[in-house]
Design goal:
Radius of gyration: 22 Å
Strand content: 5-15%
CATH superfamily of the largest domain: 2-methylcitrate dehydratase PrpD
Structural class: alpha+beta
Strand order of the largest sheet: 6-5-7-8
CATH class of the largest domain: Mainly Alpha
Largest sheet: 4 strands, mixed
Number of strands: 8
CATH architecture of the largest domain: Orthogonal Bundle
């Protein structure tokens, strides 16, 4: 292949510069602190995949995919002796990582990086034809590249604006992220990376209405992860894709997905390459400390702070005295989680994890919002539905911000027997302000997998991930993820 054949179609264009960076980035060029944080983020993603592998909706997905797909070469997290083709394994493993709303999210350009990157990279490592071993350094380099590309695609579309307009933002940004990561892992030349991104972007999509109870909400990042992997693998074989896919005016990625926005300019192409190799978007990836959609965490923290400050007022036997609870949010958080649950419509686990009303009510009643709160026996308790009816989410324009997605939340509690109100606000929940520390992530990992996997296996996985940069063969980690796990909730 000549240099012309390997170069992007327009090296000076936005797509051209991005593809060149993806192809050229070396492990040695990534700062030590970025690599170190990446290992802890990977540990968090593995925790999410393991605890969700045998949830009821995960088992429904798994059994359906096992039925429709032949056996393959790629491992399935938490399913002993089950292997599928690269594409099928990717979509199923991603569905597990996204299976309990415990996974990471980017603070300015909402997407769940682990559910996009880990499944695609694990499948690429085990793909047919990949006869050489991939080291931990190979895997970390590719993971970091994906963490940088995905958010920049979102920033080019004004961050949370996609979410406000009803798109599942991560599902739109996701094909680019997983494609970039796999392209880096396989060391594709720039021309093939450009084709891969063009193939990935034409598969982008995802409707946020999936959050109102559909199991498909858990799978939409999986569609994106699969599509990005497919794009990289087929481009590797010489199949060509759209050139300059991001900036092309007619039918280009940014021009199409910025339709309907109220911003001027409608999109920001330079955000795709801004700060590449200097400003690391990985440091804006946040780790959830509650089992709920990220926009709900501020409500949970506000209620928890009120309970701590006024313990007598918020005793369970005093909750009937609450008249109403007004919660105020940014536009993106309000549109995403502020919908009103119909009183006569039972909640599913998916809908509950997307509901500000449910988050406030369950924190008031149970004083925690963890996995157990989404078991079938707890979801539609009469006392929960009564409290939910008192929660009134509102949009507060002063909370709208492009920094950290506008996570500012205000909760005001009104009482039946008094005109006095109690109010609490947070600029952002813990995990956002401040971000979860590496120690927080390890604590979360150990807490999540307790009772789900054996302690010896837990310790071995933890050690393998946190020394991933020393590992010579990533399949050693993959083998530790295969054995069966237990379901963590009462179904």
């Amino acid at each position: 292949m000549s240099n012309t054949d390997t170069a992007p179609s327009n090296p000076d264009g936005i797509t051209g510069k991005l593809t060149q960076w993806i192809a050229d980035t070396l492990y040695s060029s990534i700062p030590t602190d970025v690599v170190e944080r990446a290992k802890y983020l990977i540990l968090d993603g593995i925790a999410c995949g393991l605890v969700a592998a045998h949830l009821p909706w995960s088992e429904t997905a798994a059994k359906a995919v096992f039925k429709m797909e032949p056996e393959g070469q790629c491992s399935i997290i938490g399913w002993q002796d089950k292997k599928l083709s690269p594409l099928a394994a990717t979509i199923l493993n991603s569905t597990f990582v996204q299976g309990f709303e415990l996974d990471d999210y980017h603070s300015r350009a909402p997407l769940h990086s682990n559910s996009l990157l880990l499944p695609a990279l694990l499948a690429a490592v085990e793909s047919p034809g990949e006869v050489h071993k991939f080291s931990g350094e190979d895997f970390l380099r590719a993971y970091v590249v994906g963490c940088e590309v995905g958010p920049r695609v979102g920033l080019a579309l004004h961050g949370a604006d996609l979410l406000s307009r009803g798109w599942h933002s991560g599902a739109l940004q996701g094909p680019s992220a997983s494609c970039a990561a796999v392209s880096s892992l396989l060391r594709l030349p720039p021309a093939q990376v450009e084709s891969a991104l063009g193939i990935a972007c034409t598969q982008a999509g995802g409707l946020m209405s999936a959050q109102f109870g559909s199991m498909a909400k858990r799978m939409q990042h999986g569609f994106a992860a699969r599509n990005g992997l497919f794009a990289a693998l087929i481009a590797k074989e010489g199949y060509t894709g759209i050139k300059e896919v991001y900036e092309t005016p007619y039918g280009g990625f940014l021009s199409c997905f910025s339709q309907g926005t109220n911003f001027e300019p409608k999109n920001l192409p330079d955000e795709l390459i801004s700060g590449l190799g200097e400003r690391w978007e990985l440091h804006r990836i946040r780790v959830k400390l509650h089992a709920a959609m990220a926009a709900l965490d501020g409500t949970i923290d506000c209620v928890a702070k009120l309970q701590e400050a006024h313990p007598d007022v918020f005793k369970n036997d005093k909750l009937d005295n609450i008249d109403k609870i007004v919660t105020q949010h940014s536009k993106a958080a309000y549109e995403h989680g502020g919908w009103i649950a119909p009183a006569d419509n039972p909640l599913s686990s998916t809908a509950a994890q997307m509901s500000i009303q449910y988050a406030a009510a369950v924190q008031l009643l149970d004083r925690e919002v963890l996995m157990a709160q989404y078991g079938a026996k707890k979801l539609n308790r009469p006392e929960i539905r009564t409290l939910m009816a008192k929660v009134q989410p509102e949009h507060n324009a002063s909370s709208d911000s492009k920094s950290d997605l506008g996570f500012k939340t205000i909760v005001t509690v009104h009482f039946r027997d008094s005109e006095k109100t109690l109010e609490q606000s947070v600029a952002g929940p813990k995990g956002v302000t401040p971000p979860a520390s590496n120690e927080d992530i390890v604590e979360k990992w150990r807490s999540l997998v307790r009772g789900v996997i054996e302690d010896d296996r837990r310790d071995e996985i933890e050690a393998k991930v946190l020394t991933l940069d020393k590992g010579k063969d990533v399949t050693e980690l993959i083998q530790l993820l295969q054995a069966d796990v237990k379901c963590p909730i009462d179904i």
